[in-house]
Amino acid sequence: MNTRHKILILDDEPGIVEVIVTRLEAIGFPVVGHTRVSMALEALRKDDFSILITDLKMPDMDGMEVLKEAKKINPDLEVIIFTAYGSIEGAVKAIKEGAHDYLVKPFEPIELFAKIEKAIEKRELKQRVRYLEQEIEDSIDHHIYAESPSMKQVLALTRQVSSSDATVLILGESGTGKELIARMLHYEGNRRGGKFVIMDCGATPPTLIEGELFGYSRGSYTGALKDKKGIIEEADGGTLFLDEIGNISPEMQTRLLRVLESGEFRRIGELGQRRVDIRVIAATNVDLIAKVEKGEFREDLFYRLKVITIQLPPLRERKEDIAGMAQIFLTEFNNRAGKNVTAISRDAMDMLLSHHWPGNVRELKNIIQSAVVLCQGPAITPEDILPSGIFDSSVPMTGEELNPLEAREKAMVIQALKKTNWVQKDAANILGISRRVMHYKIRKYDIHPEKRTTLKW
Question: Is the dihedral of CA 215, 217, 221, 225 positive or negative?
Answer without folding.
Answer: positive
